Amino acid sequence: MNVREISAAAITGAVKQAFMDLNYHIGSDILSALQTAQQTETSPVAQNVLSQLLENHRIASEEEIPICQDTGMAVLFIQYGEQVVIRDGHFEEAVQEGVRQAYTDGYLRKSVVDDPVFDRVNTKDNTPALLYTDIVPGDKITILAGCKGFGSENMSAVKMLTPSAGLEGVRQFILDTVHYAGPNPCPPIVVGVGIGGTFEKAALLAKKATLRPINTHHTDERYAALEDELLTAINTMGYGPAGLGGQTTALGVNIETSPTHIAGMPVAVNICCHAARHKTITI
Amino acid sequence: MNIKKITLPLTDDVISDLHAGDSVLLTGTVITGRDAAHKRLYELLEKGEELPVNLQGEVIYYVGPAPAKPGHAVGPAGPTSSYRMDKYTPALLDRGLKGMIGKGARSEAVIESMKKNGVVYFAAIGGAAALISRSIKKAEVLAYEDLGTEAIYRFTVEDFPAIVAIDAYGHSALAKG
Ligand code: SF4
Fold this sequence. Notes:
The structure holds 2 protein chains of 2 kinds. Chain A is built from 8 helices and 10 strands. Chain A has helices at 8-24, 28-40, 44-63, 91-105, 150-153, 166-181, 199-210, 221-234, and strands at residues 4-7, 73-81, 84-87, 130-136, 141-148, 157-161, 189-197, 250-260, 265-272, 277-282. In chain A, 39% of the residues lie in helices and 25% in strands. The mean pLDDT of chain A is 96. In chain B, 21% of the residues lie in helices and 28% in strands. Chain B has a 5-stranded mixed β-barrel. The radius of gyration of chain B is 15 Å and the shape is globular. At the A-B interface, helix 3 of A face helix 5 and strand 7 of B. The complex binds iron/sulfur cluster.
């Protein structure tokens, strides 16, 4: 097997750049969805909110400042090619260093506390980032990087449905979760849904779904149809941009699925705001 | 769209003329505070101790700004979710707070206290942080510097864009869904 060497510094540099970029520049999928919504909304308040969001993206991108002050927790889904060997350092440390440098040098907010219950002391560099690594064939490293704000993260939920709940149970749980979130997660939102696997797998799939461009669909056309149907249903709820009423409560619904156990049908709903920030890099 | 220009501090007259759904531009000064600062203020009140800031007549903005780039008064500074402050809010309204700026829904207890104390709750647009920061001209730490982004700041704002989400009569512009 051929081995490819990559320096730890190259990983740090690429991760740093990715987190700065994704915090300043929103994806074209979100931009065009916001533009479309602005044209279809009829209420002046909703139109006004959407034009402010579009203006916000323009300013952030032009001035290279964060789209939102909540620059989130850093989450990385990594496909690590098994032929890669890291020179002069360790992979995970190199990634954490990239996150640290992005949040420090890139004027991003440090929003991570060291202990969840007792101390809650800010780590001051936004680490640790959360890494989910798959080992894959090949000599490349592909990283799907995202930052997750907690206004929307707090509105997320996992439920261990059982098979008899069926499609209707899945649909109901997703809609209930969005309904419960209401105006809080900075609508218009992106809804990431993970179905199948185990308790934690469903949640990971849901997170990954929020990081998928919203102009894409599940490869199985039955789930693709469910994505469209849920989006329509959510947009009749009436929360609208900023929760001030309107037809655009969500910009997209992305579903990811996985095989599961004969006795189970876990469903996770990860709510993301319109600031759905992500970037894929290959090293 | 009709936009009301408001000069801070808020007077009772101005508050009585604000109605759910009104678009406003705020000019003057506001204080900031979010989860950690609220917890500290609340604990001081519970112990009957003095607060490090005088809340009388103030507007509080629920925000934890990003760091400022050189040449900027403040980094991106959009609102954070207000419901997390709900537990502490009635006690602060009883101490003279006249306005709040945040995003999302409030509890019944907060709305009752707003009616009792004649307080208005504004929504700023969540996620419009870069845009909003342009209306913040100056930021200085007032208290709890150790909390970093969660410290209590005084912001000087000019034409800060917001919408009356819940007015002092308890009427709400937030969609019920
Ligand atoms: S939910 Fe999203 S847009 Fe709203 S404040 Fe949090 S990160 Fe920003």
